[in-house]
Amino acid sequence: MTTIAYKDGVIAGDSQSTGGGNLIISLATPKCFSKDGNLLGVCGLFGDNLKIIKWFHGGMEGDVPEINEDSEAIIVTANGDLFGFWENQTMTKLGGLDFYAIGSGSPIAFGALHMGATAIQAVEAAIAHDVYSGGEISSFSLREKVIAIKKIA
C-alpha cells in the first residue's frame, strides 16, 4: 500500500507502488500533492487515487469521488483543517488531532509521530519496517508551499 503522514503543517509520503500483493511496480509514484494551499495524500488502489487527485486538482468541486474500501486519502486545507477519506464517499473532519497517518505503514508512522517524529521521519520509519512502503519521500508544507524529496538508501 504506502505510508502517508501528517504533522505540524507537513504532509509526507513514500513513492512505492505495489501490485499483485507482492510486486514492486514503481519506486517513483507521487502520492502527496499541493494545490491552492491545500495538501493531499493518497494510498490504495491506483484508479481510486487518480479519481481523488483529479477532484483535488479541480478545486474539490462537486461530489467527493467514490473509492474502494482498500483506498484512503487525507486532505489538509489551507487553514489547517484535516479530513480523512474512506469508502462510500465518506469524507470526515478529523478535529483535535495533532498528527495522522494512513496506509499500510500507518501503525509504524503513528508510533513515530507519537514519540515526536516529524511527518518525514515517520515515513522514514515506516519505510524501514513496512514492505509495502519504499522509494523516495516527498513532502509539502502548508507554510512553505514547496516540495522536498528525500532519497532513502
Protein topology:
Blueprint: E1 3-7, E2 10-13, E3 17-19, E4 23-26, E5 32-35, E6 38-43, H1 46-57, E7 72-76, E8 82-86, E9 90-93, E10 99-103, H2 106-114, H3 119-129, E11 137-141, E12 147-150
Antiparallel strand pairs: 1-2, 1-10, 2-11, 3-4, 5-6, 6-7, 7-8, 8-9, 11-12
Main traits of this protein?
21% helix; 153 residues; 12 strands; 3 helices; alpha+beta; five-stranded antiparallel sheet
Percentage of residues in DSSP E strands = 35-45%
Radius of gyration: 14 Å
Biggest sheet architecture: 5 strands, antiparallel
Low-confidence segments, given as residue ranges, are none
Task: Tell me the helix content.
Answer: 10-25%
SSE series: EEEEEEHEEEEHHEE
Shape summary = globular
Find the count of extended strands (DSSP E, 2+ residues): 12
- What is the average per-residue confidence, as pLDDT, rounded to a whole number? 91
* N-to-C CA distance: 20 Å
Strand order of the largest sheet: 10-1-2-11-12
Please work out how many helical segments DSSP would assign.
3
Secondary-structure-based class equals alpha+beta
